[in-house]
Structures are given as C-alpha cells and as structure tokens.
Amino acid sequence: MPVLNNSTQDSVRPKARRNSYVLPKLPVPPLQKTLDIYLNCMKHLVPEDQYKITKAIAEKFGARAEIGEFLQQQLMERRENKVNWIYEWWLDDMYLCNRVALPVNSSPGMVFPRQNFRDEGDQLRFAARLISGILDYKVVIDARALPVDFARGQLAGHALCMEQYYRLFSSYRLPGHRKDTLAAQKSSIMPEPEHVIVACKNQFFVLDVVINFRRLNETDLFTQLRKIVKMAESEEEGVPPIGLLTSGGRSEWAEARGVIMRDSTNRDSLDAIERCIFLLCLDDPSSVEQTDKNLALQIMHGGGWHKNSANRWYDKTMQFIVGKDGACGLVYEHSPAEGIAVVQCVEHLLCYIKETARKLVRADSVCELPAPRRLRWKCDPETHGYLTSAADKLQRLIDSIDLSVYRFKAFGKDFIKKQKMSPDAFVQVALQLSFYRCHGRLVPTYESASTRRFQEGRVDNIRSATKEAFDFVKAMIDGGTSISDPKKMELLWAAIDAQTNYTVLAITGMAIDNHLLGLRAMAKELQMDLPKLFTDKTYLMSNHFTLSTSQVPTTMEAFLFYGPVVPDGYGASYNPHLDHIIFCISCFNNCKETSSAMFAKAAEKSLKEMKDLCVKCNAKAKQSFMGNATHKVQNGRKSCN
User: Fold this and answer.
1) Beta strand 318-323 with 279-283: parallel, antiparallel or unpaired?
2) Which of 3, 20, 469, 544 can pair with 495 through a Cys bridge, CB separation 3.0 to 4.6 Å?
3) pLDDT 10s digits, 559-585
4) Tell me: the pLDDT tens digits for 455-476?
C-alpha cells in the first residue's frame, strides 16, 4: 500500500493526515471449516433428503486426496502471487459477467435531502457548488491523501483499505458482448480528465473545469451551466435520446456501441463521456408528488424515456442528479466501489454545500469563458432500432419495480444498544422474522460485509438465515403462547449471537461465499469438469439470494436503495439512526408472491414485537448475559464498513 501524505490544498475540506501502513492479504479459509459452515447454513433451508445428498457430496469433495484438497492448494498458491486472490473472480461474478441492465437491477441510488429551488438559478447555483465540492474532494483523492478509515465497534482500530475511494472518479464500465471491462483512467499517455459531462434535456455537454491551467470557481461554473441550459433548450427537438442505450442489457448495449462507434463523430463523443470525471444530470421536473418513494424512483431510473431516463449515462461510476423541482441524488455504477465509499463522499459534498451556501455566487463570471461543447451523434436506422428497443425494455423494467421507503419511528439504534445488542444483528433478525411472517419459510440471505481489513478488500456475505434465527422466528410466529417469553428471549439472544459471530467470520476473511466462489473459479480456470459440489441443487439454491440486504448508515437525512437481485426476491437496505430506522424495500410486480408494502408492514410488526420482548425480559436478560462478552457488542455492522 502507498504512503498517504498530506500534500493537499488548504481549501480541501477533508483534513488528511500522514499514515503509513501495510494491510495483510486476504486469507484463504480452511477447506473443512468452509464445508462445515456451508452445510450448517443450508441444513434447515432444504428438505432432509436433499440435505443428505449435499452432505455426501461435500464430504467427498473435502476428503483427503480428493479434488477439493487439490483446488485448495491451488488457491493457496494463487494467494501468494496476487494482491487479493479473490478480487478479479469476485468482480467478474458479481458484476462484469452479469448481463442484466444496470438501472434497477444493479446500480444503487441515493436520495439527498430535498432542496427548495425557487427558480432555475437556484438549481444551477446548487449544481455549481456540487461540482466545486467534488473537485475539492478530488484534489485529496488525486494526492492519495484521504485520511485512512479505521474499523469501529468489533475489532476496532484496524486500518481499512482505501482503494475504493480512489476509483470513484477514475473508473468507467465498458460494455462487452460476454463480459464488461472496468476501465480506469491510469495512462501515462492520456492527460488526466479535466472535464465534467453535463446531461440536460437528453443532450450531453463537455464542461471543462480547468481552463488555461485555472480551475473554475463557483461563479464560473454557474455561468457555464446557464450556457448549457440555453444551448439545450435551443436544440431540444429531434435530439436522439442516446443515453437510453446505456440502460439496456449489457450485451445489447455492447452491440449498439459497436454500431455507433463506426462514425468518427460518435467515437469522439463516446471518448469524451468515457474519460470524464463524473456526470451531472440536470433533470426536468418529475411532475409527481415528491414522496420518499417517488424521489427514489426518480433517482433510480428517471421515470421513463419521455421524462428523464435518457438524461443519464449508466456506465459512468458517479452520476449526480439535480432536478429543477429540488429532487437531488446520486446513482452509481456499483463495480468500482461499495456504498460506504460513496456515502462518505456524498456526506462531504453535502457538508461543503451547506458551509458555502451563505457565500454569494455572482450572476456571471468576470472573465469571458469559452462556451461548453455539445456532443454530437450521428444515428443511422440501425441505431434508431437499438434506441427503440432500449426505451421499450427500460419502460418494462420501470413498470415492474415495486419500491417502498418506510420510516420506522418507534425506536432506533439507541434502544437496541441499551439492550447490549448489535443494531445490525437486531435488524437482520427482524428481517428474517419479517420474511417468515410473509412467506412461512426462510431463504438464503445476503448481507454485505466489508473485507477492507485486507488489501483490495471488497465484501463477503453474512448468511443471516441462520439456524438460530430460524428457531427464533418459528417460536415467535408458530409458538404462540406455548413458548414462554423468557424462552423466546433466549432464542433471540442465540439468533443475535449467531448473526454477530458470522459477521466476525466475514469481516476477518473467514466466511464461505468467496471461498466457494474461488474453488469453483479455480476449477474453471484449470479447465476441469465442475465438481458436483457446484452443480448440486443445494449449492445453486444457496446462491439464489431471495433476500438481499445491506446496512448503509448516513449521518444526514439521506438514504440509499437498490433493486432485488433475483426475480422473486427482495432488496432491503436500512439506515439506522438514533431514534428511527429508514428501510428501502424493493421487489418486482411480476412476482405475485412478493410485495414491498407487505414486507414493510411485516418489518414494523416484527421490530415492535422484538422490542416488547426485550422490555419484558430486560432485567432477566441483563442478569443472564452480562457476563457473556459476545453480547456486549456495539454497532456490529458499522465495524464492517
């Protein structure tokens, strides 16, 4: 890892400090331990006869001198030769080989506190401050001088890998026919990008933020943004909604990109977009009531081709959206970084805007600036065919998404901490209870846990549908009065413990999902027949994450959301504050079994029941468990970020 330094400008808001540290490499867990945990995770989720078959397959795979031992040894050798042995395989499996469209399916969104713009001038002043704040932040990133993050809560004090931050404004996802490419702006030949792309009325403009070696100030940026709006209004009719192409399936977009690349004008326009620092999308009003849900949908997909959906370029990592009606937020391409890096960046920007809001921005720049450049496109009939197809498929995707943003106000993480429980573990158990309440069963569940304690660490999976959670939810739903409250409380503590212990496994590199992925990928790389472990029905089911969850905490009233990862599943992000919790629940209307509103109501009921149980059994619980160190956890999920 590089030595981080503090050679930054005085105006930069994040105060960098000098740090020198070397992170360890991600470990390869013991094979037998992974197989044991895998069987334990799945035993209560599959029929007994199916489990017996899986157990026999796993035992054979892990036996001495069998294929599992050989693949394990190959992984150990790979670890010696790679900075992070799983990173490339994980990136391909999670993102780059995935052929689904980015909006709704892959790219998360974030809603900022709503802005009250009186007119277009207010919108553009906010946008100018946003650009200035990003450029300020980027100075620190370019100097690789961000203060190092350290783990909090469990295993506090560990330095965390910062590489995700350094990809936020230097990455771009290039579509491919079979696999995408995560491109980075690291070239000794091409100069560092010094421009932003502004999307306005489905058109794209190059906004140079450095002119004659001088970075534009907020007044300059405001002047240039006004020029862009006027240019967009003057040529609004007949403009091809070229941004829609990036909303399609990845293979279809790769085909369309190949077609438009035949023309030199289009190649120049694509190059300008692909090399920009970030996108700023100046949206038209959405014409719907600005509820939490509608704001999230506006950020997620733009409302359709006839609204703001073509005012996007989904391949770019960071797209900031500033609507004329005050709807502001961010949609980001997920492959370069996890939510925590994005949230930290956004919170810096919002603080910057708040601090500089009192500063007067003059109506016009004092010096004459060259006009921003409009990107031109030449579209033949074949390209128009791709545009029509992309618009139709995006509209079907928009019509299919079912999203609820629910603000649970009965209590927040403050109450949970007073019970000596991890807020994240508490919410995760509540989500299991909610799913069981809705569907009468538990399913493989994904909760992202950061592995940033290691070089190039990204995430592994906390499998929250534990046997202990299963026992607890059955007692709560099926047990009725036949199971006493003290017994239910005992089961709740066991579920909290199991969740907390698995969290520790994941953040210390000892969880099973990355390991199993590595064993499978190694077999493919060696061109071996895929071992039965990975073609077994249980393994395939174990990777169908019907419930995909993540805690994304913010200090401000912003919230992050995303879509489900499987057609019959839920996406569930949550943002715990001291006295309330924001839930964003998503699913697809096409699935008759799922409903975001139903799940949100079940979550409310489950959380209240769990609180009532804690209050009833509080004294006894404290007396019984005060001596157990595993119960004295703070915010366990925070320590994972």
Assistant:
1) parallel
2) 469
3) 999 999 999 999 999 999 999 999 999
4) 999 999 999 999 999 999 999 9
Q: Which residues are catalytic?
A: 334
Radius of gyration of the chain from its Cα atoms, rounded to whole angstroms? 25
| Cα–Cα distance for residue pair 564/358, rounded to 1 Å | 41
> Which amino acid is located at 604 in the chain?
E
Q: What are phi and psi of 266, to 5 degrees?
A: -65, -40
Instruction: Give the separation between CA 108 and CA 90, rounded to whole angstroms.
Output: 18
Per the prediction, the chain carries an average pLDDT of 91
- How far is residue 514's CA from residue 62's CA, in Å, rounded to a whole number? 17
pLDDT tens digits, 14-38: 333 444 578 999 999 999 999 999 9
Which residue(s) pair with 199 in the sheet? 204, 281
What ranges in 176-330 are assigned the alpha helix state H?
Answer: 218-234, 250-260, 264-274, 292-301
What tokens does 578 get?
């001291």
Terminal-residue alpha carbon distance, the chain: 19
Task: Look at the domain 409-509+537-640 and name its fold.
Answer: Chloramphenicol Acetyltransferase (3.30.559)
The yes-or-no verdict on residue 186 having pLDDT over 70 is no
Q: Where in the sequence of the chain do the CATH 3.30.559.10 domains occur?
A: 409-509+537-640
Choose among 132, 283, 133: nearest CA to 221. 132
pLDDT of residue 192: 67
Q: Is the pLDDT of residue 427 over 60?
A: yes
Q: What is the pLDDT of residue 562?
A: 97
Structure-block tokens of residue 1: 């890892």
Nearest alpha-carbon partner for 25 in 84, 74, 72, 90: 84
Q: Name the least confident of 98-102, 181-185, 449-453, 496-500.
A: 181-185
DSSP 429-498: HHHHHHHHHHHSS---EEEEEE-TTSTT--EEEE----HHHHHHHHHHHT-GGGS-HHHHHHHHHHHHHH
pLDDT mean over 539-561: 96
* pLDDT at residue number 366: 60
Model confidence band, residue 365 (pLDDT cutoffs 50, 70, 90): low
- pLDDT value, residue 569: 98
Helix axes 513-525, 67-81, angle to 10 degrees: 90
- The answer to whether the CB of 588 falls within 8 A of the CB of 402 is yes
Strand bridging mode 445-450 / 547-551: parallel
195: part of which helix (H) or strand (E)? strand 195-200
In angstroms, rounded to a whole number, what is the distance separating the alpha carbons of residues 245 and 383? 9
Here the tokens at position 43 are: 């035993």
**pLDDT surpassing 60 at residue 358:** yes
What is the topology classification, in CATH, of domain 99-145+162-186+194-401?
Chloramphenicol Acetyltransferase (3.30.559)
Residues 327/238/203/386 CA torsion (nearest 10 deg)? 100
**Contacts within 8 Å (CB) and 24+ apart, 323-326:** 323/123, 323/282, 323/283, 323/284, 323/285, 323/286, 323/298, 324/117, 324/120, 324/123, 324/282, 324/283, 324/284, 324/285, 325/117, 325/285, 325/286, 325/290, 326/114, 326/115, 326/116, 326/117, 326/123, 326/290
In the prediction, which pLDDT does 15 show?
A: 38
Residues carrying CATH 3.30.559.70, the chain: 99-145+162-186+194-401
540-574 in b/e form (b: 16+ CB < 10 A) is ebbeebbbbbbbbbbeeebbbbbbbbbeebbbbbb
